[in-house]
Specification:
Shape: elongated
Number of domains: 3
Helix content: 40-55%
Strand content: 5-15%
CATH topology of the largest domain: Hypothetical protein af1432
Structural class: alpha/beta
Order of helices and strands: EHEHEHEHEHHHHHHHHHHEEEEHEH
CATH class of the largest domain: Mainly Alpha
């Protein structure tokens, strides 16, 4: 965790004076203007604390701290000013989200105490953020592991969609690509509430009764209800809820939403899920990509074009790349991180895991347990390099 403190003032003598008193207590970096401070943030950041003068030419202290709030929101902001005007103080606190406000001249021991308190505040902010992120990651991992065991076929499709969604979201610079990645992984979570007999019929594309169709239609709603109470996953819950909603307003839920009112993550999931359903391998064929045009009314037209362009690029890149050497292997020897390139089936034809899945530790444990009960069609084809890339 950083303990660096950035001092910003257009008076070099004042900076040197402050540095003499505080350099033994804090890791200090100095800047003589707002522009220089922003450049220093790029090259030497992040900073735990910034102390800025209020009245500087070109960029005021309020403007600087407002920019810092946008670029480095965890940095605790302190302000120095020779202007004791109440309006100035209120403006600084409201716009720059100031933690402490000091009038110049400020006694070194007073400033030292203020920086010390700001560092404690920074530790609280970052500790809470770390705890939240750790809890979030753990919660998501548990849900993903549950899905990988409860419905490995759906999990395999979700893993395929997740890889595509993450790449596309980053390439298109969509906001919060991590939310779209998690949405793709948890899109099928609601399937845990559907009876196993119905899931088997669904995976085998067998006809469903009206009651079973209603259950399947509500999978996104169940998934949303499971996700929505996890901190920071409200947008993910909305993406999961609207994953089957068409751009034209068709599909679940029947709430009148259409077009750009549907979350962008859900609009992307709708395209990628439909594409995954007709794709046998890890990458769609050109015919698969073209088939999206037949269902164009379901999709955001601009997003559909970008998705098609992305896969055209991936196919061209694959055509030029050396072929990956696949390894033949017994099911009992599979390890987490391997990507399977053939269906894993029992000798009786029971599909246990579809081709294209990247194996998780719980999946591997389940497969190893199943080898003690069932006889499998072996060997299976795997790409072992995907495990090596994780190590």
């Amino acid at each position: 965790m950083t303990k660096k403190v950035l001092l910003v003032d257009d008076e070099p003598k004042l900076l040197r004076a402050i540095s003499r008193h505080l350099k033994r207590k804090f890791d200090l970096v100095m800047a003589e203007s707002g522009a220089e401070a922003l450049e220093v943030l790029k090259t030497e950041g992040p900073f735990a604390v910034i102390v800025s003068d209020m009245n500087m030419p070109q960029m005021s202290g309020v403007e600087l701290l407002e920019r810092f709030f946008e670029l480095s929101p965890d940095t605790v902001r302190l302000m120095l000013t020779g202007n004791a005007d109440q309006t100035t103080a209120i403006e600084a606190i409201n716009q720059g989200r100031i933690f402490r406000f000091f009038n110049k001249p400020v006694a070194p021991e007073v400033l030292e105490q203020g920086i010390t308190e700001a560092l404690r505040q920074y530790e609280l902010i970052t500790a809470e953020k770390t705890l939240l992120e750790t809890t979030l990651a753990g919660s998501v991992k548990v849900l993903v592991d549950v899905l990988s065991i409860a419905d490995p076929i759906a999990f395999g499709k979700a893993a395929k969609v997740q890889g595509w969604a993450e790449d596309i979201a980053k390439g298109l610079r969509l906001p919060n690509p991590w939310e779209i990645k998690i949405s793709a992984m948890l899109a099928g979570l609601g399937r845990v509430a559907v009876p196993e007999s119905v899931i088997k019929k669904l995976n085998a594309s067998h006809p469903l009764t009206d009651g079973e169709k209603e259950m399947v239609q509500k999978i996104p709603a169940v998934g949303k209800d499971l996700i929505v109470n996890i901190p920071r996953l409200n947008n993910v819950a909305q993406n999961v809820y609207y994953q089957d909603k068409g751009f034209d307003g068709s599909g679940f839920p029947e709430d009148g939403r259409a077009g750009m009112d549907i979350p962008v993550g859900a609009r992307l999931l709708r395209i990628l899920k439909d594409l995954a359903a007709i794709t046998d391998d890890n990458l769609p064929t050109r015919d698969n990509i073209a088939q999206l045009d037949r269902w164009a009314e379901r999709y955001d037209p601009e997003l559909k074009k970008k998705v098609q362009s992305y896969f055209e690029f991936r196919i061209r890149k694959l055509d030029d790349a050396p072929r990956v050497e696949l390894t033949k292997m017994k099911v009992a020897h599979l390890l987490s991180g391997y990507t399977v390139h053939s269906n894993i089936e029992t000798v009786d034809g029971l599909l246990v895991l579809a081709s294209g899945a990247k194996l998780t530790a719980p999946q591997v444990q389940r497969l190893h347990n199943l080898t003690k009960v069932y006889e499998f069609q072996e060997p299976v084809l795997v790409d072992i390099t995907t495990r090596e890339s994780e190590i």
